[in-house]
Design brief:
The protein has 359 residues and is α/β, with parallel strands linked by helices. The chain contains 10 helices and 14 strands. The strands form 4 sheets. It has an 8-stranded parallel sheet, sandwiched between helices. A two-stranded antiparallel ribbon has the order 1-2. A two-stranded antiparallel ribbon has the order 8-9. Strand 8 and strand 9 form a beta hairpin. The protein is globular, with a radius of gyration of 20 Å. It starts with 6 loop residues before the first strand and ends with a helix.
Length: 359
Amino acid sequence: MYKNKKRIYKNTKGDTNMSFTYLNQLPTPEEIKKEYPLSDKLTALKKERDAMIRDVLTGKDDRFLVVIGPCSADSEDPVCDYVSRLTAVQEKVKDRLIIIPRVYTNKPRTTGEGYKGIATQPDPEKAPDMIAGLIAMRKMHIRTIEESGLTSADEMLYPENWGYVEDLLSYVAIGARSVEDQQHRLTASGIDIPVGMKNPTSGDLSVMMNAIKASRGKHTFCYRGWEVKSHGNPYSHAILRGYVNRFGQSLPNYHYEDLLSLAEAFEKEGLENPAVIVDTNHSNSGKKYLEQVRIANEVLHSCRCSEDVRRIVMGFMVESYIEDGARSLDEPGYGKSITDPCLGWEKTERFICETADRI
């Protein structure tokens, strides 16, 4: 379908200069979207969901957001099975919660080693294939919407890939390792759906706040070979995910005092629509996935203790799949994470329903 153009580039100015092997020229977002379009019916559904989620972040809707799903969306069938299960739960809690399936097709790697997500590696046990990966990413997002009636969240690990899914997603996260990067911030300023900025792994909240301010501004920059101008994203917000200290220890930042400090930081910066999503896993739980329920309950208690905290806390981000825990690639396990451990389905359903009761 697509013509692959192979070429070699090498900078010969010196032995220390880097070199690349150009493997395949990737299809453009327009080509992929034409081949795998979103129907008019689902486009209208996305527009409706986008508006609901924006209203939560601007305070017009007092429901909570729950961004929930696997650590990495590694396989289409179990991911779509999982997301479809959320549909009935969403109906039960629709007056109090808006569920946003977490369908993460890109996986950041601290050392560069390991599985990098379906967009790079559509089969975790085979070599990377980015053309097949871009197609697999788009097909899976479309299928989840078709089968569940819910539009999803994904992480924007590679800003230049945004165009392949921009008509499908209702929420975007910028990860802890990307949040200080200028291209991520500027691209986020040109996105018209909510973008969550995670605190960096160091825990420095000023980095996250600067990312929020940058993404809310208007900018002229280079994007996919074009000079472009963005118009600012008023729906960018914070995600607290814990941090790692200089001794390599994971420490939380979801406690009452942390949330109060963030509320004060928003007020000091004078930002409209102050908002935070609390990530209940990662360094907040030390990747002890069963702690996610307790962490969410503590945050809800903090909301009851302070109007300032309740005013900024808009929901949770939770890692969840069909089976509890995680597995290695050579172990069987339908719907069990191959990256970070996740809550299983029974615990997930109970967590969502109990959270709705506590709001």
